[in-house]
Write a structure and sequence with these properties.
The chain is an all-alpha fold and 232 residues long. It contains ten helices and no strands. It is 78% helix and 0% strand. α5 runs antiparallel to α9 and α6 packs antiparallel against α7. It starts with a helix and ends with a helix.
Length: 232
């Protein structure tokens, strides 16, 4: 039973609703400071994951080609357009602006595609240990709540794609995990860490690169890491 995964999804939904309720009661200065604090936290998490890398060359190559593929496919633009339309249909308001959607998709990636979320879901299924995913649930609750003070209750919708991704990983874990060596898991985590760093830099307004365009790297790391070990 994926109790940790379901708990994480519940925390995301509650964080979005509560943040939307508190939106008008929190000062702009506090929102800005907390938002920047999460940017620094994302950088810290990313660095922690990257330093455990096994094959740095494979990780860098995966990221470069991942961004290339994501950019060619216009992943950021397509995903933003989808959720912008969903926002209009649900809230019955005008189409949200570019700045709003940029922050929303940053939160989307942070919740749905982080290394801790992916590995946490698979670890819970394979070992029964929910520690990683429950730690993520606590962090997600406060992260989404703070973002929701800026983005509103629509942030809670992120719980749906997150649930689909994590439940898929949970039920596929027994097929995937036995094929993943400890070294490959470290490289996969390092790619996730680099994406976390991209998110942190985006929140801190130090980079315009969107983490959505880097998502293909999470898939590319498997063949690239394997081939790198064969060749070198």
């Amino acid at each position: 039973m994926p109790l940790g995964v379901l708990t994480d999804n519940l925390m995301v939904a509650l964080g979005g609703i509560l943040g939307g309720i508190l939106k008008s009661r929190i000062s702009d200065k506090l929102k800005e400071n907390l938002n920047l604090a999460f940017g620094v936290a994302a950088l810290g998490i990313g660095i922690t994951l990257v330093v455990k890398v096994n094959l740095l060359g494979a990780v860098v190559l995966s990221l470069v080609f991942g961004v290339l593929i994501g950019s060619v496919l216009n992943l950021e633009e397509k995903i933003q357009a989808f959720f912008a339309k969903l926002n209009v249909k649900i809230l019955k308001k005008t189409k949200p602006g570019e700045a709003y959607m940029s922050q929303f998709t940053t939160l989307l990636v942070l919740c749905c595609c982080s290394g801790t979320g992916i590995l946490g879901s698979m670890s819970e299924a394979f070992t029964g240990d929910s520690t990683i995913i429950l730690c993520k649930a606590i962090l997600d609750f406060f992260t989404v709540m703070i973002f929701a003070t800026i983005l509103g209750k629509f942030s809670a919708i992120i719980a749906l794609p997150q649930m689909i991704i994590m439940l898929t990983l949970f039920f596929c874990a027994k097929l995937i995990m036995p094929e993943m060596s400890e070294e490959l898991i470290r490289d996969f985590s390092a790619v996730g860490g680099l994406i976390e760093m991209i998110i942190g830099l985006r929140i801190l307004r130090l980079s315009k690169l969107n983490a959505l365009d880097a998502l293909p790297a999470l898939i590319l790391i498997f063949p690239v890491s394997y081939l790198w070990q064969l060749i070198f």
